[in-house]
Amino acid sequence: MPPGEKQKELHAHEARVLPRGAVTNAKERAQVRTIQDVPVELLLEIFRIHATRCKDTGSPTAWMGILLVCRYWHRVACDAAELWRVIHVGKNTDWFLLCLKRSARSLMDLHFSGLPTATVEAAVALVIPHAQRIRAIHLTGHGWLSADVCTLFAQPLPALEELSILPAEWRSPREAKLVPWDRGYRGLHSLALSGVSIPRDPAFYCKLRTLELHERCCTINQFTIDDLVLVLNAAASTLEELDLSRFQPIFDRDTQSAPKPPLPNVCLSRLRGFYLYDEFPIASHLNKHLTLPRGAFLHLRVYVMHADQLRYTNGTAVLADIVPPGVRHVLDDVTDLAVSIDRNSYSIRAPSTSLNVAPSSSASDNRQGSESDGPPIDRVRIDTLGWIPDRKPGLRAVLTVYTSGRLTSLSITLGGSEYTLAEWRTLFGAFRMLEKLAIVDHSHLDPTDAFVALSASTDSDPGSAQAVRGDDRALSGSVENVLCPALRTLHLEGRVQGHRIEALFDALCSALRTRAGLGLRLEFLCVDCSRASGLTCAELGVHASVLKPLVKSLVVR
């Protein structure tokens, strides 16, 4: 068929099949719009969205691949100053100069990440002529910074809103007076420092939305724990993120010193995340002045020295000072709780259930994975370390931190510790809405007293013979008198000693039989004692056959 004939035939076919007016002529069909016909404003918006997504992937310069698509894209991108305002400084000074030129008169965000000191100093010399345009400076992952870097901060920085100086792993060999705070910096909204002295004037912090302070920041200016309370009070109306991990303000332990004026109670009503990793005296002194909003992220990691434990009657009182009423308010809406009690540690955690609250970007890099990358981060994480075995908080201590009765899921991980029937009854008695319970102990699983507590009535004497045996007569016949009446799922996991296997299964069967008699049959039971010594598959099957009629769904392994 000659050239063009096939096209004519197709047009003739369309004219026969399509309704009148639906057939376009050949000239209109040939006028196909190209990427060059897209308005510059629309193309720039596409570039901005693409650049933003690339920054979120951990490759902040990946968006520059658009420069290689065609000359038109290259020209549009190079002329758009807003695309070049965030500059990640590298070892190539020519490229850095080009970025400074293309950013034109836009405000700049400068990122110096993991660069040698010499490279940072060379870049500082190039950026000084543009100091008026600097909106953010982020010096992270570096070694010791020389005095030459001070020349940058000696310049007027009227547009500066964000400042981060964080050496690798926050480790700094000594404190430096790197920033002349008296030169202004009143427009700061975000401040993150480690190894840099900080000002004591509370008014300096009144506009901050993010405050992150770490090691070696307090000696030169004699910044005390009381100064910290006053600083937080000044920033209370704006502060959204607070990270004080390994921050050690000067703390006067002398109780015989002259009396000081009372410190204010600080209500951080807009706070979305509070992170503290420190020793007990600092944590307890600071936290008693704070009131946090419900639903905020709370991560506490506190080391309790032996001397501090001996000043209290028991570990529960110590825990109450670490998480005073204004701080434990964060847990009011928690419905899922995990408690872990080991030889010298005591932890309480609640997973994140809200996407509206997220940890700060700078702090989350040093913790767990984010919501979108890796396992979900715990919204509440209270870790206490250094306990003397006989001073360690028990099961009842959970009720000191968590005072709401809305709990529906509870996981208890024990490191070989055994607790009395009275402790189990007190714990279960506070959670009438509990639906899911997990007890895990990989060293010595023996929750016999927990089973007895679940089968006894709320008004029976915990020391009575009926309560100890889990006898049906210990119940008054009313569901309202049973502990955890809403319990539907029970998970047991751990190593059971051979001589305790029979007693454990007998106590479990007795509890399930009692609850089933009142119409409180479990929907799911999982018993994972695969590490049990001397227990064969056949013996497991025998125990499973006894448990099966008492629950709706059973897994024994």
TrEMBL record:
Protein species of origin: Lentinus tigrinus ALCF2SS1-6
Alphabetical list of InterPro entries matching this protein: F-box_dom (IPR001810), LRR_dom_sf (IPR032675)
Ranges of compositional bias, category Polar residues: 352-371
PANTHER family, per database record: F-BOX AND LEUCINE-RICH REPEAT PROTEIN 6, F-BOX DOMAIN CONTAINING PROTEIN, EXPRESSED
Disordered as annotated region, ranges: 352-378
Pfam families according to UniProt: F-box-like
Positions of the F-box domain: 35-87
Listed name of the protein: F-box domain-containing protein
